[in-house]
Amino acid sequence: MDARDLIENLKAELTCSICLGCIIDPVTVKCGHSFCTGCLLQCKEGDNETLNCPECRRFIRPGDLMLNKKLKNLSITGKRLRSHLLQSVVGLTTCDQHGEKEKFFCEEDQRLLCDSCLLAPEHKDHHVLPLETATDKCKDKLQETRNILEKKEQEFKTALDKVRRRKTRCKEDTHDLKQSLMSEYVKMHEFLWDEEHEYLKRLDQESRDNLVKLEERKAELSQQIQNLQRMIVEVEENLDKAPLEVLQDMTGTLEKNEECLLQKPELPSLGWSTYSITALREMLMSFQRDITFDPESANPHLTLSEDLKKVKYGSVPQDLPNNKERFDYVLAVLGAQTFTSGKHYWEVEVGEKTEWELGICKDSVSRKGKLSFSSEDVRTLAGCTSGNCSFILNSHNDFQSIQPIHKVGIFLDYEKGHIAFYNVTDRCLIYSPSNTVFEGPLRPYFSFGEPKEESTPGSLIICPIINE
Known about the structure:
Blueprint: H1 3-13, E1 26-28, E2 34-36, H2 37-42, E3 66-67, H3 69-92, E4 104-106, E5 111-113, H4 115-118, E6 128-130, H5 131-239, H6 243-262, H7 280-285, E7 302-304, E8 310-313, E9 332-334, E10 343-350, E11 355-362, E12 378-386, E13 389-393, E14 399-402, E15 407-413, E16 418-423, E17 428-431, E18 442-447, E19 459-462
Antiparallel strand pairs: 1-2, 1-3, 4-5, 4-6, 7-8, 8-19, 9-18, 10-15, 10-19, 11-12, 11-18, 12-13, 13-14, 15-16, 16-17
């Protein structure tokens, strides 16, 4: 190994592998590797961060660090000797061809020259400098490069310091943001709880009012039944009298009972208010699906739009193949989409004076002949909007009159076996049957009910996706 290699080896041993500079205040780890104390500590970013050896990645415990005074002294000495050693190495070089000292440097060929090499024709037009001058020039360039690198190093250290501060700030901001969001949701929860409490309170009062009406009507009907029973007894007694007495008493008996005979049993009208639920539609819209009609399932009397979003009734049936998927009696059409899991929501615009039936059905639902409203294959809500009122019939055959409905929302939660119907305009619940267990594929169901001569259905429109 020549002197130059020895110098380079010494330089490598005295170089910190982190900063790549001459090692300063060296510290030696238990694994045997040495680094600048400051460089090694920079590898530990926080008080709770672990410290690993940059060379072998072994975990460093606090007791594994040891200041290396001998290496520090050797580093100082080596730094002072290196320039002198390099100069002595240069002074020892001789030309292999002429055996003379190489005192010049050719910048074009990047090689040392002796006096005889300088006179050779191949170097005649080359830029040749005395070795000392070339060395100084090279040192100037290296020093300039070093200055640039040190400046760049400082820029990166500054950036690293900013990143560390931002990391700390990010943790603090995350904590603050979480607290703020939790506070906002607490406010929303409290607001919705208060709203729920108020709505339930109103519903309880309406229930009490309805029960009072029913009890009063029950008493009235019982009294009317008693009156009718007394009249029946009186009539029966007259029937057993002699002919002359029957004729004499008939007029009085009929006049006395005439008012009662004109009375008809009436059921009380129960009032149920609808309540708008805050943020209900915004929540439902997050589950909105792009639903379209399935042409293969449409009854021949139903005409679909080109975008498969609108269906209307036609009195003259279309000439369509009677495939097994097509409804042949019920004025119905299915959605093209099939659901086997997840949460789904879609909205349907029901025209005025339109009888409709909306919901879901099993994919295997019978398409031929009549379909019972209470069939287990369908979960629907039927209705009709006329004038200032909508009439609703649910799967329990409960009939109710409510405010006009122009747009119905349907929400399906397959896993929970849950379906609900909403008045989109008023943002309130219309009806939600008890949860069940869904089995197999489900599809959206749209129907105008069974054909009726006295009424002409209008149209149903699936509302488009709203990108909010």
